[in-house]
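Quick illustration, no need to memorize.
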Amino acid sequence: MRQIVFRGRTPEKSYKGSRWIFGDLFRTIGTDGVGIQYWDEEDGWMTEDVHNSTVGEYTGFYDTNGQPIFEGDILKSRIKKFEHIPYVVGYREGIFETRPNNQDLASMPLKYLLNDDDEGTTLKSWTIIGNVHDNPELLEGGAK
């Protein structure tokens, strides 16, 4: 069964300051705002506004270190022909895809990078090195 989780960065003025939160996405009725509802061990169920541009969905896949991969993550490969190119995870036309250096050239479905393991969810030789929101400098020429 597919696990649907979103992440988003809260504004500086939010409860506990700006940070990434993970949970269920919701839209504020009558506004363009979005928020994420999540469980906080101290405060119970919380709902916080997040920046629209930072919202990303969990892909259902993990990198070689077991870290969950979200839209907007930047991946790097240990495969020699790909090792110097950062790949950005995105969503288009119903599939999660990777784009070399965040450009549309030669994009490929994320599932093509998978290892043939029992779970079918671990990427072979690919590691998350950052994301487009916190680390735009990892892309050639900055964020695109």
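The chain has a mean pLDDT of 83.
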